[in-house]
Structure formats: C-alpha cells, structure tokens
Amino acid sequence: MKLLLGTRNRGKIRELLALLRDLPVELLTVDDVPFSDVPETGRTFRENALLKARAISRETGLPVLAEDSGLEVEALGGAPGVYSARFAGEGATDEENVRKLLELLRDIPEGQRGARFVCAAVVRFPDGTELAAEGELRGRIAFEPRGAHGFGYDPVFIPEGFSRTLGELGRSVKDEISHRRRALEALKARMRGYLRRSP
C-alpha cells in the first residue's frame, strides 16, 4: 500500500519519514505526487488535519496522512495554537514567529512560561475510513532562542525534564519525545489494525 504524506513542510516531511519508516507501506511525498494547497480553516488541530487529509486524498485517490501541530502557551491563553505557522502573519518565517512570541512574553517570569506542543494526526483512506490520534509535549518557553536544530519554535521550547531547548537537544532526542512521535505511535497502532483487516 502507498501512503502519501500530506504536507509541504520539509521539516515535517523529514520527521514523518523517520517516524513512519517501520510501517509496511510505501511512503510518498509531494515530490512523488504533487497536490494542491489546502486552506487550514479549522478551529482545532484535528479539524485542520482532517481538512488536509480529506482534500488531498480526494485529489490524488491515495491514502493520505496529514497532521496539524503547533504551540499553545499558557500565558497567552493558548495562543498561537492553530495559527502557530502564521503567528507573525501570512508567510511569516520561523524567526519572525519566534520573535513575536518572545516579545509577547518579554515580561512573563520563568514560572509562568508554561507551554505545550500539540499534534493531531489523521489518515484518510479512499474507502472513507479515517483514523486519528493526538500527542503533546509539555514544557516552557525560554527567554531567547538557543540551538540550531529543528524548526519552528524548537529553539525556544524547553521540554519538561530538560534544561536545554529542542533546538539544542537535536534531532535524535526530539524524535524520541516529540508530540509528533506520540501522536504517530498511537496512529500507527490503529493503522496496523486497519491494514491487517483490509484485503
């Protein structure tokens, strides 16, 4: 079975390929099967993941795995949330989003900088079957970016139990503890059950 990854984000593609490599499927990306952009108009991460998986599966006729993920900061009432990728405006760079976040948290003390990364992942099969799972990674926001690894808010996010940011911890540690891994591990278990039942 072929499984198309429903994202154009290169950082996410790399993580998804690594996290899904043990599935008995052929993983495809936008480089293999081009697809149209899907507006993320949902109010939750799960709604956005479903929108993308359904639209791309309809367009390509393939099973599609899509996810939506982002950062929720307690002191900001859960923002940036579903707007994480465009927090500083449409087309904003990672650096611009991080700069806006740190500016808003400038006067927030260490003990009030709690945050979590959230990931909602969905697989949509052409027969209409949809499988979903969510994962989270709790931590806090640093006062300045540190580390050159990862993407998005990784350089300012310090996971619980660590003193360094995801940007400092690097790819192998992030892949072990990330919200995306937690969502995909749960989703893979459901997918294996589906694959065993399908002809």
Your description of this structure?
This protein has 199 residues and is α/β, with parallel strands linked by helices. It has one domain (2-197): Maf protein. Helix content is 34%, strand content 22%. It is built from 6 helices and 6 strands. It has helices spanning 10-20, 45-60, 94-104, 166-169, 171-177, 179-197, and strands at residues 2-5, 26-28, 64-73, 114-124, 130-141, 157-159. A 6-stranded mixed beta sheet has the order 2-1-3-4-5-6. Helix 1 (10-20) packs across helix 6 (179-197). It is globular, with a radius of gyration of 17 Å. The protein starts with a strand and ends with a helix. The model has no long low-confidence stretch (mean pLDDT 94).
Tell me roughly what share of residues is in helical segments: 25-40%
By DSSP, the count of extended strands is: 6
Shape: globular
Distance between the termini: 11 Å
Sheet-strand content, in percent, reads 15-25%
Average residue-wise pLDDT: 94
Query: What is the CATH class name?
Result: Alpha Beta
CATH topology: Maf protein
Query: What characterizes the major β-sheet?
Result: 6 strands, mixed
In N-to-C order, the SSE pattern is EHEHEHEEEHHH
Low-confidence stretches: none
Second CATH tier, the architecture:
Alpha-Beta Complex
State the domain count.
1
